[in-house]
Amino acid sequence: MELIGAGLMLVGLFFLVVAAIGMVRLPDVFSRSHAVALTDSLGALFLLVGLAVEHGFSPNALRILVVLALLYILNPVISHATVRAALRSGMKPWRRESG
Question: pTM of the entire structure?
Answer without folding.
Answer: 0.81
